[in-house]
Amino acid sequence: MQSLTLSPRIAWGIIIILGAAIFLPAQDLPAQDTVGCFAVDQYDMPRACTFLEEHGSCLWNALDSHDTCWEGADGFLEHVGCEIGVQVDLLACNFGMPWRLIQSVIS
Length: 107
Known about the structure:
Low-confidence stretches: 26-34
Distance between the termini: 51 Å
Largest sheet: 2 strands, antiparallel
Order of helices and strands: HEEHH
Structural class: mainly alpha
Mean pLDDT: 78
Number of strands: 2
Radius of gyration: 18 Å
Helix content: 55-70%
Strand order of the largest sheet: 1-2
Shape: elongated
């Protein structure tokens, strides 16, 4: 039976990510304030977004927020904070997808 061991690189990576997540100050990411999705129909009239458009909007906002954070970052630790922030935002979009699907089916 093989024992489960982590390579030193993976172990250090986990330690660095967890340490950064704990000790870096929280940053407001501007795109997180964007609520909803904007879509127009074939006649350029506003319409409700589809399920996939809402998910795409969430992903796009996460990437836009990363770009804004990256441009305003000053130094290595703030850049690391931007990278961690975009990963958290992308995970939140993807983990929230089943809940949005359930809500769109119910409503």
